[in-house]
Predict the 3D structure of the following.
Amino acid sequence: MSNVPADLRFLKSHEWARLESDGTVTVGISDHAQQALGDLVFVEAPEAGRRVVAGESCAVVESVKAASDVYSPVSGEVVAGNADLGGQPELINQDPYGAGWIMRIRPEDKAQFAALLDAKAYEAALAAETH
Amino acid sequence: MGLRTPLHDVHTAAGARMVDFGGWDMPVNYGSQIEEHHAVRRDAGMFDVSHMCVVDLRGERVRDYLRRLLANDVAKLVQPGKALYSCMLREDGGVIDDLIVYYLDDRWYRVVVNAGTRDKDLEWMRAQSGAYGVSVEPRFDLAMIAVQGPNARLKASGLLEPAFAARALELGHFFGAASDHWFVARTGYTGEDGWEIMLPATEAPAFWARLHAAGVAHCGLGARDTLRLEAGMNLYGSDMDETTSPLESGLGWTIAWDPHDRDFIGRGALAEQKARGVARKLVGLVLADRGVLRSHQKVVVPSVGEGEVTSGTFSPTLERSIALARVPSQTADRCEVEIRGRLLNAAVVRPPFVRHGKPAIAL
């Protein structure tokens, strides 16, 4: 079974988002997503300074099996992409909610974050997907 | 729900991630596909390949039948137990399937065909068999387990009946030996040493468990695919099919042109294609830039033309992306591949990429 931390917000497309104390939003892919993709071998994270729109594909994660787009949960400016993933894409498999983060965004509209799925709603979406 | 092998419940109990493969419910991995891949390159791994179909061909004229049916020539098989890789072609030279045929005795050959092509293969083999009085009998009572890797034969041999184990360990490459309903062959689809073991379906779960206890890692179809691609082996349905000939699929070496009067099915069409000049060829690609090659990506060969990736993956051994691709015959040693709208550089190489655990190409 996959791990869905209660303090995170999610997209149905399996990204997670965490509101940091400095107001930025950290984004990655969920434990369920990394399990479904299998061993990750390549990650293309966005560069700092890029402006992204909520719902826009702004990163790519590739496993041995497949390539998958990562969608931004919020609109704003990318303040950092996770450079460690360039040499160690497996960090996403090992620690999807920690060292495997993909990008950090300074959101333009806090209401967008508040409107994301909470853990319970994401768990329900996962359950619906597997039935 | 798909078709299930005799080992299905063993896989699900082991926590395998199951996927549909040609109508079969098969394990794609049991955790990490890359770890399973390395287990085969460095030690020993096993695959459930019971979805593949074992077919026994029997009759007084079975040799003549196979010399008509297959593009490679079973007349090369003179020692009992010897195996041969061949394509089975349509009249127009398109590949119906690729298979391994074993010569067991003068009235008995055994072939192993792909899972997804089983029904059409049996239909085709039966349609050709009448004139030769050959019986075509699929062995649905058998399971098949491939044990592969440098230590695979040693680890598996301890689980066979001692006299049979001794015979099996003496087998040369591409030889098999039978004992009752068991059959062990020194063949595989990984580029490593190992055996493919056919055995009664009822005995498969217990034998699988004993292999696992002997230190043979369970491996899914995901690792099987990265291993075969590193080994430069074609996958039917991806790298060749009924619309491509062996000459366009890197399989020219499997066509036995001699003797010139052997009239195998597809010979006329292949000879014509060869005389005309083959427009496309199957090559290996190694991506120079970062990214992952995938099937159906467009290949661009500047000032020559375009082609297509037929199988692509990330090579766990080389830690680079590799592929097989069908490209114009004039393609030299460089090309570009379009990945998400960008053209990335790739080297054109001659497979295999990896042999016996070591890189077989210069990086």
The first helix of chain B runs from residue 8 to 13. Chain B touches chain A at residues 17, 28-29, 32-34, 222, 226, 290-292, 294, 313-314, 316, 321, 340 (CB under 8 Å). Residues 62 and 134 of chain B are 6 Å apart (CA to CA). DSSP finds nine helices and 21 strands in chain B.
